[in-house]
Amino acid sequence: MKKATLILDKDYAIGRIDPRLYGSFIEHLGRAVYGGIYEPGHPLADELGFRKDVLEKVRQIGVPVVRYPGGNFVSGFNWEDSVGPVSSRPKRLDLAWGTTETNEVGLHEFAAWAEKAQTQVMYAVNLGTRGADAARNVVEYANHKSGSYFSDLRIQNGRKDPFGIKLWCLGNEMDGPWQMGHKTAYEYGRAANEAAKMMKWVDPSIEVVACGSAAHDMPTYGAWEYEMLNECYENVDYVSLHRYYGNPTGDTPGFLARSMDLDDFIKEVVAICDAVGGRKHARKKLNLSFDEWNVWYHSNAQDKEVLKADKWGRALPLLEDVYNFEDALLAGAILITFLRNADRVKVACLAQLVNVIAPIMTRNGGGCWAQTIFYPYMHASRYGRGMALRPILRSPVYDCKDYENVPLADAAATLADDGSVTLFALNRDMKDDILLEGDLRAFGPLKVKEHILLHHDDVKAVNTEADPKNVSPVQANGAEIKDGTLSVRLPALSWNVIRLVP
């Protein structure tokens, strides 16, 4: 059996974990809203039309914040279309996804859903086809108490108290040529600065996220962040990052190494933020909002066929990736990477939450089940709170097409306020178990509360409505602590959560 070692100390602190690191995303895309969170007439629909089985799974994860309503969708969205009597709301062509948006679910409805889901709203404003004026107006509508045009309109529309939305996205992926209202870095930076300034004049308590480049491999990447931050650094609080991974060639070792790309990406954007801050002699540091991340490639061919058959349809089954076991392993590796960068990555949103590249799937009129990626996400959200700690890890390594010296064992750790320690550990080895030994003497006496294991012999195994537990966690035996040394076996290709308590 191969062996890895780690040393962990409460003084090896990375930073306090912002609970919003475990956020998610609902866009008006596919069946995320209609048929996902909202399906009037479903046997499990509540009085507002929201599916109670979906709400239960969202609460099970413990999602702290949900980005809404987009995404590419928001770059052509008029927020006013989504308020007022539902019967009076216009139907609009959504140029982003080739569908028709009915606006049956809007700001009021989504806020009501968020309250039921025990989460907060992260609202995106349109800086594509619109600008600072619409942005400041929706902040007034959502957050101002009363006595102004838009706050009184909210009251007229049935919501006396403000929604109190505290986190706002300034557009979406604005350097992407596919984006409605696509801009240069300078154009976007100026628009973001004016929007942020005016939005904060309406409500000084809010935080705003500026759009980073749409992708790590965009020709504009890097220069985009630097140029746009030159224009808006003083008035923004976070820079967004988006990253998706796929494995169309079936190269599992290379696929599982992609979290190394993620770590590079984070460190590069941090460096650019700090370079602009240094140039401006700024006292504040900008943090990161990784507000889109996931595996996305399974549904690409199917989406083309769906749109060919029914372009401009309502709530088409788009981006419905069926996730397998290796996707769950990469999701775990991504979450480990976020925790190891918790000093600067403060917000992250798994894209998306229901049906659309999502951990939760539903069938219209039917069941609701957890996909494979649901479990690492839920474990991190439940147990990855408090202080992120940096393990000193020594592991056997391997080489793949894009990376050398990829650690077979990867890990992150957290120290909760009650003194409990959680170790998240991944074994990337295709064949062999790894014995992980950890020096935890600095924490004093600890005992193993549980070892949660996610493993399947088939990396392509999936969960379905008929077999929702095919890939699901179990309680493992054998983890032990003796004289301050943790000993635990990590099975080949596995995600592990080892919880330790005083």
Describe what this molecule looks like in 3D.
With 502 residues, the protein is an alpha/beta fold. The protein has 2 domains: 121 residues, Immunoglobulin-like; 366 residues, TIM Barrel. The chain is 26% helix and 25% strand. The chain is built from 11 helices and 26 strands. The strands form 6 sheets. Strands 3-4-7-8-9-10-11-12 form an 8-stranded parallel barrel, surrounded by 6 helices. A 7-stranded antiparallel β-sheet has the order 2-15-19-20-26-22-23, covered by helices on one side. Helix 3 crosses helix 4, helix 3 runs parallel beside helix 5 and helix 8 packs parallel to helix 10.
- What is the first-to-last residue Cα distance? 30 Å
* The CATH homologous superfamily of the largest domain: Glycosidases
Number of strands: 26
The strand line-up of the biggest sheet is 3-4-7-8-9-10-11-12
Task: Kindly give the count of domains.
Answer: 2
Question: Any descriptors?
Answer:
11 helices; about 25% helix; 7-stranded antiparallel beta sheet; Immunoglobulin-like; 8-stranded parallel β-barrel; alpha/beta; 2 domains; TIM Barrel
Task: Give me a quick take on this structure.
This protein is of the alpha/beta class. It has helices at 52-61, 107-116, 132-143, 149-156, 185-202, 223-232, 252-256, 259-279, 300-310, 325-340, 374-383; strands at 2-7, 13-16, 23-25, 65-68, 92-94, 99-101, 120-125, 167-170, 207-210, 238-245, 287-295, 345-351, 360-362, 368-370, 387-389, 392-394, 397-398, 406-407, 409-415, 421-427, 434-439, 447-455, 474-475, 480-482, 485-490, 494-501. The strands form six sheets. The protein has an eight-stranded parallel barrel, surrounded by six helices. The chain has a seven-stranded antiparallel sheet with strand order 2-15-19-20-26-22-23, with helices on one face.
